[in-house]
Design brief:
Shape: elongated
Strand order of the largest sheet: 6-10-11-18-17-16-15-14
Number of domains: 2
CATH topology of the largest domain: BirA Bifunctional Protein, domain 2
Strand content: 25-35%
CATH class of the largest domain: Alpha Beta
Distance between the termini: 20 Å
Largest sheet: 8 strands, mixed
Number of helices: 15
């Protein structure tokens, strides 16, 4: 720590020296005419030893390497498009300017102007005739960032992670393209992008614990939304027949490699559709995203090659448990029998819970991790899906699917329940579950019931986890790797 303090003091001394010499270390603006990528693309035809003296380009970036050689210096600067080598010579920029340049540090941001040449080793380089300091860095970049053992430091100081690690910036560029491609797909099919409240008086649309805050002027408690579902359905009632929202959700639950208290989903609703039509939309949209973002229809994730082309596997929840856990719940079982099966499988469950919730625990703990290739799991018990429509072939089940890829849930969809009387019964049952201690059971939303009473057409709804999709497409080990600023415990705790 003493060495770091000394380095900080040295940089502050340089800062004061710059100011004393009349140099502004933090000017207001700088006009850039080209990026590093522009230069490499436009002048990539130059042969080793050749130069284009007719051009005069202005680039800005952060100094990443410096190699002083007396009266000349080779350096690399990094901008948003990548890195470019620069060549600074004392007799070109002038003695005084060169002396200032030699005092610059790695991490300083500079602007340079010059012509382009190709070195004898074949590297496109800017022959600099003017240097401008744009921002003096008072902290040194880590010398061996890739070797840090404290990975939390990378998440906590994402700004340094992005500077030092080109692959990290690539993850977030891909993430942006994923969302852009989804928007384009839905916009082209007449979906309307909307925004719904992030602060709600009644949290609903998912089984989760909300964050609570207080609005002083209204003197009411409000909750950060756990899902936009009930508001998006209100819009279907209002006649906006195809809507979607790229939404930020907040859930007051544990943090893991797959969970962050705030996360991003895309949620959509299509009138006059059921879960079968939404299933095809889901498959088609994700396939397009993979092709556009990766340029192919396969990717490696967690040691497996995930194939997105062709038909995706489709199983019922009961069928998946039979296939992967070798338990047949199509044959009726008592609650005690179900508990024994779960115990034999070493599945953790609440001993006071129901038959269907134990089945869900068996699926989550014994089956999910085995669903590597894209797989739709369909038809869930009514108890597990209070907002979904009953199946016509089996009223004890609802028309619902979840998509699993790489052993994790990626999407959830229903044929939406639009019977207001049945929906009220389901919510009343959820209230009873809350009274028994289930903090994630949903609350009664009278305004939502009132909206359904005006009539909602048959509707299919779908939610896709953006973070988890990016995890798979980038082969990232944790959700923290694909969220720019994941939630962290304060440093002083």
């Amino acid at each position: 720590m003493e060495e770091l303090n000394e380095l900080l003091q040295q940089r502050r001394k340089k800062l004061e020296d710059l100011k004393t010499s009349g140099i502004d270390p933090y000017p207001n603006k700088f006009t850039v005419t080209a990026s590093s990528a522009d230069i490499r693309k436009q002048y990539g035809h130059l042969t080793p030893g050749s130069e284009d003296k007719t051009c005069s380009l202005v680039v800005a970036g952060r100094i990443m390497t410096m190699r002083l050689m007396g009266k000349a210096c080779f350096a690399h600067i990094k901008d948003a498009a990548g890195r470019i080598q620069i060549y600074v010579k004392k007799d070109v920029i002038g003695e005084q300017e060169y002396e200032v340049f030699k005092t610059l540090d790695m991490g300083d941001i500079i602007g340079v102007k010059g012509s382009v040449f190709c070195t004898r080793t074949g590297e496109i380089t800017l022959h600099v005739d003017q240097v401008t300091l744009l921002s003096k860095a008072l902290r040194p970049l880590p010398e061996k960032w890739h070797g840090l053992t404290d990975i939390e430091t990378r998440y906590r100081q994402r700004y340094v992670d992005l500077i030092a690690n080109d692959e990290v910036a690539g993850i977030f560029r891909l993430r942006s393209k994923v969302i852009k491609t989804m928007r384009e797909y839905l916009d082209s099919r007449n979906f309307l992008e909307v925004e719904t409240p992030m602060m709600q008086s009644i949290p609903g649309g998912a089984a989760a614990k909300p964050f609570c805050t207080h609005h002083n002027a209204l003197d009411i408690d409000l909750f950060l939304r756990i899902a936009p579902e009930l508001y998006l359905k209100r819009l279907i009632v209002g006649g906006l027949e195809r809507v979607y929202e790229v939404n930020r959700n907040f859930r007051n639950e544990g943090i893991s490699t797959r969970h962050n208290p705030e996360f991003t989903m895309i949620e959509l609703y299509q009138a006059y559709a059921d879960y079968n039509q939404v299933l095809e939309l889901c498959r088609e949209m994700i396939t397009l995203v993979v092709k556009e973002c990766l340029g192919k229809l396969e990717t490696e994730y967690n040691g497996n090659i995930i194939q997105f082309d062709g038909d995706w596997k489709r199983l019922t929840l009961i069928g998946a448990i039979k296939e992967y856990a070798e338990v047949d719940f199509s044959v009726p079982k008592t609650l005690e029998e179900t508990k024994k099966i779960a115990s034999d499988l070493q599945v953790e469950f609440d001993p006071n819970t129901s038959h269907n919730k134990i089945i869900s625990c068996i699926f989550e703990q014994c089956v999910e991790k085995k669903l590597i290739q894209p797989t739709f799991i369909c038809d869930y018990p009514v108890e597990l899906s209070p907002l979904a429509k009953n199946s016509k072939s089996n009223p004890e089940m609802v028309e619902r699917f979840e998509l699993f890829i790489g052993g994790q849930e990626l999407a959830n969809a229903y044929s939406e329940l639009n019977d207001p009387i049945e929906q009220r019964k389901r919510m009343e049952q959820q209230l009873k579950e809350r009274e028994k201690g289930d903090e994630e059971a949903q609350l009664m939303d009278e305004d939502f019931i009132r909206a359904l009473e005006y009539g909602m057409p048959p509707t299919g709804g779908l939610g896709i986890g953006i973070d988890r999709l990016v995890i798979i497409l980038t082969n990232s080990p944790s959700i923290r790797d694909v969220i720019l600023f994941p939630q962290m415990r304060p440093e002083n705790v």
